[in-house]
């Protein structure tokens, strides 16, 4: 039997992510209040600037709130044990994911951001157990886009991405035999 592994949240990474989100919120507010005068049909269009400004404020504002809620937490970001893994690393964390449900671990890259996809036998069960309607919708969107509602990023964890992928794959292979 392998030991339990607890990977803490990285407060430093969370603070940097929060600062980055707040910069985009501030830029959205600035463009909303004082839209730039650009001589371009698309980027100079006041309606386009308004839509982009509101989208930036809403999207990055939501991310900032989720990160701010994670900062004071002392729970580990990820727990890996003999039963499965418990994800508490992000805003739409899935909670406990059983090894018996896990079929495959893969990696995708979206805009130079690497993400671990956890493919499970029963994806709808993981979506349905979410109590938050927003989390449920985001997990459904992930499922529709990537074939699984479950993903993990090392952005908020005290571990390098490749080390985390290797750790998860090794543990899955050991459990599955």
- For the biggest β-sheet, the strand order reads 1-2-3-4
Main beta sheet, described? 4 strands, antiparallel
Individual helix count: 5
Secondary structure: number of strands: 7
Order of helices and strands: EHHEEEEEHHEH
Question: What count of domains describes the coordinates?
Answer: 2
Given as residue ranges, the uncertain stretches (5+ residues, pLDDT < 50) are none
The computed structural class is alpha+beta
Query: How much strand?
Result: 15-25%
Transmembrane segments: 14-33, 48-68
Keywords: Membrane, Transmembrane, Transmembrane helix
InterPro entries: STM3941-like
Question: What does the model show?
Answer:
The protein has 177 residues and is an alpha+beta fold. The protein has helices spanning 11-33, 46-70, 123-128, 133-146, 161-176; strands at 5-7, 78-80, 84-87, 95-98, 102-110, 113-120, 150-152. It has a four-stranded antiparallel beta sheet, with no helix packed on it. Strand 2 (78-80) and strand 3 (84-87) form a beta hairpin. The protein is elongated and about 65 Å long. The relative contact order is 0.15.
């Amino acid at each position: 039997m392998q030991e339990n592994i607890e990977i803490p949240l990285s407060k430093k990474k969370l603070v940097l992510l929060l600062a980055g989100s707040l910069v985009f919120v501030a830029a959205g507010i600035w463009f909303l209040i004082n839209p730039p005068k650009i001589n371009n049909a698309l980027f100079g269009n006041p309606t386009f600037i308004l839509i982009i400004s509101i989208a930036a404020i809403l999207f990055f504002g939501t991310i900032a709130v989720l990160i701010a809620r994670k900062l004071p937490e002392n729970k580990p970001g990820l727990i890996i044990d003999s039963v499965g893994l418990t994800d508490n690393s992000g805003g739409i964390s899935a909670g406990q994911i059983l090894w018996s449900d896990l079929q495959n671990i893969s990696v995708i890259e979206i805009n130079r951001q690497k993400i671990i996809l956890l493919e499970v036998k029963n994806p709808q069960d993981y979506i349905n157990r979410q109590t938050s309607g927003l989390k449920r919708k985001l997990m459904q969107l992930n499922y529709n886009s990537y074939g699984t509602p479950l993903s993990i990023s090392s952005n908020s964890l005290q571990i390098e991405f490749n080390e985390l992928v290797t750790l998860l794959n090794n543990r899955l292979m050991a459990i599955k035999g």
